[in-house]
Amino acid sequence: MTRGIVGRVPDELINRAICGECAELMATLLPDNCIDLTVTSPPYDNLRLYQGFVFDFEAIARQLWRVTKPGGVVVWVVGDETVNGSETGTSFRQALWFMELGFSLHDTMIYQKNGFRYPFPNRYHQVFEYMFVFSKGSPKTFNPISDRKNLQPTKSGKNMKREQDGSKSYRQHFEATKYGKRFNVWRYNTGLHHVATDNLADQHPAIFPEALARDHILSWSNPGDIVLDPMCGSGTTLKMAVLTGRKAIGIDISPEYIELTRTRVQQAMLQMPLPLGGQQIASDADVFQLVQGELL
């Protein structure tokens, strides 16, 4: 791998979904340091069979390290299976392996659902998954979404910090606006009529909300950046990348899911991606206002 030299993705791969084993295809098709952002969700242990295909996590993670640009981000949405009454902890092992490769664990975020699959008799209802945000060095892009209404907006204030010896110190004054930056727990409605704005996504057995993919894409990339999903499944990441003015690449080992992704991306490309009154998308704020009402 050539460190620091940004690779160029071939034009023929842009806004395409490619069928094959993702570690092999990344190694063959993608140069070093070429991807700005990856948003993906791997198979969760054995919760889904995924047509019998094998998931080689370590090979995929190595390729993600190689293809991610310096300052690029990988968002890894993952949960654990419960086996014989115990969670497997696979998600934590995967996070530690990413760090062994050189990624920084920039943030451990939570994807909170508004419901649960089934109750357990001896534990609390399971309503969240991890969204590990890994970065190759310090993230080069962060566009915070500020849609959390502050309870008491004020023009001045100060933060108290507890020092190592237990004493208190106070930081400089700050301005609290009407809306503040989100917390790192993101809550989404789930279910057939909430996760997607089309009627195609549910042909895949495990989909995450379009709004989740959109919000990470807006947060960690800019228009024109390249967004990858190496296990693209139903194509949600690619669809939202196109709708937000990014360039998308998807890989999946299932021919059926690749066709599903291609159909959804083609529909998305007809919806937007560039025209807003015949002009280029001006900002992510415009995109967010255009699509958030349909997705939340």
Keyword list:
8 helices; 296 residues; 8-stranded mixed sheet; alpha/beta; two-stranded antiparallel ribbon; 2 domains; Rossmann fold
Order of helices and strands: EHEHEEEHEEEEEEEHHEHEHH
**CATH homologous superfamily designation of the largest domain:** Vaccinia Virus protein VP39
How does the overall form come out from the CA principal axes? globular
Radius of gyration of CA atoms, rounded to a whole number: 20 Å
List the helices and strands and how they pair.
Elements: E1 16-19, H1 22-29, E2 35-40, H2 57-67, E3 68-78, E4 82-83, E5 86-87, H3 90-101, E6 104-113, E7 128-135, E8 148-149, E9 160-162, E10 168-170, E11 179-180, E12 185-188, H4 192-195, H5 210-220, E13 226-229, H6 236-243, E14 247-252, H7 255-271, H8 284-295
Helix pairs in contact: 1-2, 2-3, 5-6, 5-8, 6-7
